Amino acid sequence: MQIAKPVTKPSKQRKRLYQAPDHIRHKLMAAPLSPGLKASHNVKSLPVRKGDTVRIMRGDHKGFEGKITRVDRKNYRIYVEGLTREKVDGTTIFVPIHPSKVMITKLNLDDKWRKKVLERKKTGRLLGEKVLEKTPEKNFEVKEEIIEEKLVKEKPKRKKKTVKKSMAKKVRKKRERRKVLQERLKAREHKFG
Questions:
Q1: Distances (CA, A) of 50 to 81, 101, 113
Q2: 30-108 — its CATH code?
């Protein structure tokens, strides 16, 4: 298995950022949770969603709090309800903000998948803390327990084709090729014989 080396070239980092697929862009749109939410959910950060309430922590609009009305994954920006500015021609537009500059104060938990994500992150974090608390001898036991739990949860995998069948097919194909070649040689010998 190849291990991916971290990219240190800024140009390559930018390229990866701009050409990132949607599932990676989603993770890059994460924001830290408020101290109250951190304590209750035992999670440090989550990707922002429409309907979350956020407080802006940096920039000209520092301290402003409102609901997210739109998440723009293409440009890595979010738009907060009530945070607008007036253009020269008089029209009002929403001010785009990068999600790293905000803090989530209230989560939108209407989605069952988001609840599952929270639970998964919470259990992973608790397991990590358990491992750190134990001595090296006990760490091994805890890791074994975790592995056993994962094995129990995993679905049984489909049986792979046996090597014998695939080898038998290869052997059959080789024999057929040999027969064809031998017939061709006999035909040539008979023709030019």
A1: 10, 16, 14
A2: 2.30.30.30
